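Moderator note: this is an archived Q&A kept for reference. The question asked for a predicted structure of one protein chain; the sequence and the answer are reproduced below.
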Amino acid sequence: MVGLALRAMLLPITHGQDFVVWDLASRGTLAGVNVFAHHPHYPGGPYTYVPLFLYVELPVQWLALHAGWSFTVLGKLPIVAGDLLAAALIAAYFRQRRYGDVVMALATALYFLNPLVLYNGAFYGRFDGFCVGLFLLALRFYEPGRPRSWRFPLLYAVAVAAKTYPGFILPWLLLRARGQRIRVVAALVAVLGGLSLPYLLTSPVPFFKDVVLYDAGKLPGNLSWQSILLQPHLFARGALLSHDAARWLSYALLALFVIALFLFTRLDLYTYCLVAILLFLVLSKVVIEQYFLWPMPFLIFAAVERRSWSSWSLLTLLSVTGMAINPYIHPFTERVLPANALLAACILAYALTRKPAADKTTSHH
């Protein structure tokens, strides 16, 4: 109730540039515009995702336009629903493992009342919480004893369609969930292809550029430690790398990330989810504070269930860092470059020291 009350207060206050993209893209789509081929006048970059969330925003945008209600409020409701779903699934995780109400309440509050989660969703209007909820929902229906079930593959494909990061666990699924890998691949092709089909048929090249290639040409920035290599004022002889060299380094680190995903498949599923996301935060050239929401449920599972102080510490570090360095609340500005390297080192050290937990990937029904 406290979490819902806080969100009700935060919803109408304001929104960030990302939310303007959802607003303009849904308005344009309702007007019959292909927003991948003909970009509205976005304040930042284009809509760079498979259009699942765009479709979710269409009915609330229609209601806002025809009823005269605020899209700032209505457009955030699916995001709040995602937060609520994630909180319910965190509680269900601990209930299924026979923890008491106090532990369930604590674990749920660590996410649902987390200031970065509140800021990112109900205040700013990013939809990472929407994807967190869908990803946890898919994992809840992972049933290794029922390889012929389509529930997990379809729910997993929907989570990947919301944002790409659930796709990080695909190597684990291919190697460890062999009974379901054909269904997983088929579901990904069907769901991603079905959602994207209108744009694949009418504007395949612009769609591919926006969804796949948009980040490819970017230089390292935001909270990525790689941005340090481009700062001439930090080194006596100028920047350590040219722009072209920095891009090639980022491609090499991305390839290393893919290789590393196959090296950690010995881990149990939930630990693998956590490690895969953390490795991306270390090896990606684009790291934004919203990405810190992705590992939070898995850090909560490890912190509470394993009584892991390192998990508690990293959860706190990501929450504090995300709140201190962002576009609205930034007492330390977005370019605390030495801190970027220190943060990456902490994340990497934590990820590399994870060990498999007891297998808890049995049916959660």
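Archived answer notes: The longest helix spans residues 181-202.
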